[in-house]
Specification:
By secondary structure, this protein is of the alpha/beta class. The protein has a domain at about 5-115: Collagenase (Catalytic Domain), CATH 3.40.390. It contains 5 helices and 4 strands, in the order βαβββαααα. A 4-stranded mixed β-sheet has the order 1-2-4-3, covered by helices on one side. Strand 1 (about 5-10), helix 1 (about 15-30) and strand 2 form a beta-alpha-beta unit. Helix 1 (about 15-30) crosses helix 2. The termini are far apart. About 20% of the residues are buried. Bound molecules: zinc ion. Zinc ion binds near residues 82 and 92.
């Protein structure tokens, strides 16, 4: 009989191929006959799991496992076996204390690994020579300097635009003030002339 289908949704830093091998081994050890879906999520501190509960004759499909930062293949195997057994209808009451606590013996997990994914960057860092490393760092810092300079230029241009705008406003209002002042001077001059002409007349009259 072909092995039952296994779907893994892995949201952790652990390698999916390692998780797949562990779950496969657990499925084999438990005599799983139906397809399974395993949803793997990261947890901050403690491992945990849940499962859809099935029966021997009608296995449930889905289990969830939460893996903490420092976890190994044996621990993952215990957890996977615990949850998978729920899909086969096993209740906590049916389990040994070790199985319940996920501390059972799992000889079938011997030699399995639970490695973390190697990210592209750390991969590069691991193999590069000192010269390559120097080049990479200089390139990275040069790009950063370019970015910062571009940002500084933008800030400078913005400041210059603001300065130009207010300089024009200053010039405009100075002109307005001058214009208003000269209008006022002209008005006063006209008034004074008018007064003088009246005065002149009076004076002329009074002079008689
Ligand atoms: Zn349980």
């Amino acid at each position: 009989m072909a092995a039952p289908k296994l779907t893994i949704q892995n949201g952790t830093k652990y390698r999916t191929d390692d998780i797949r091998r562990i779950v496969r081994a657990a499925m084999k050890a438990l005599g799983v006959r139906a397809a399974k879906r395993v949803i793997v999520k990261p947890s901050r501190k403690h491992f945990s799991g849940r499962a859809n509960v099935g029966s021997r004759t009608r296995e449930a499909k889905t289990i969830w496992i939460w893996l903490p930062p420092h976890f190994n293949a044996k621990e993952a195997a215990c957890l996977a076996a615990h949850e998978l057994s729920h899909t086969q209808g096993v209740c906590h009451g049916d389990m040994t204390r070790e199985q319940y606590m996920c501390r059972q013996e799992v000889p079938w997990a011997k030699g399995l690994q639970l490695r973390t994914r190697i990210t592209a960057t750390s991969d590069v860092k691991a193999v590069e020579t000192p010269a390559q490393r120097a080049r990479r760092i200089v390139e990275k810092r040069s790009t950063h300097a370019d970015d910062m300079h571009r940002k500084a230029l933008t800030r400078l241009k913005r400041a210059q635009n603001i300065e130009r705008k207010w300089r024009k406003q200053v010039q405009y209002y100075r002109k307005r003030q001058t214009a208003l002042a000269s209008e006022e001077t002209a008005r006063r001059a006209r008034l004074r002339d008018a007064d003088l002409s009246v005065f002149d007349v009076d004076e002329v009259d009074g002079g008689i």
